[in-house]
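Hmm, what's this shape?
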Amino acid sequence: MPHRIWRLQLTCPQPSCTGSMVKAGLYRTIRRVLDIDGWYLMATEYLECLRCKKKVGGWSQGIIRQLAPTYSRQFPAVLTYKLSCDHRVVTQLKSRTLGNSATQLCNTLREQHLDARMRRAIQYLGVCEQFLALCSVRGQFPPPPTMPTLPSPIWLLTVYGYDIMTRLDEYKARITSTFGSILKMDSTKKVTKKLSRAFHKEGQELTLGTTIVPSILSVSLIISELN
């Protein structure tokens, strides 16, 4: 709740409006969020623009983008249409390799959810047993609730795609920035000649590619030269 708790001054996320946002009650929808070993519920507030009277939820991307990193990094989940996914689960998708797919992550989550449900069920039955021991009248307690169905691996990949969309500016900054130290600078023709002496065939292919994609070729030649 950025406005109700942090008292932040927010503007309307609509492109053609610059009005200020004020609190307009609590958002009626409560989101169910998938975590590593269970589920939790997340609520937010309604924000209304004083100028265009548009109402948005406090977890919309138009509001989160206005927050400083100190506050935006505290948002715990990636939201989809029906369900939501905690960032700790999304982090597991970033290191996908051969044998570590979304299906494998889904199986791992199912095992961890089953283990956590078993611990809670044992605790629940233990409390029920203690309560019955203190009562003179024997009664029956309802069984522990069933475990909610986990989403499919396709849904996990969809969530990962949504997370990438929220970090497009970061990826653009990484692509367009230069990191590290420059060991040597030389012209493309000189590097091509040096490569063609050792690898005549490869040098001809690189020279042919110069007229097609010179920018990509320059990067490839520089990497080859440094290696």
Remarks:
- The longest strand covers residues 21-26.
- The beta strands are 21-26, 31-34, 39-42, 45-49, 55-57, 77-79, 84-86.
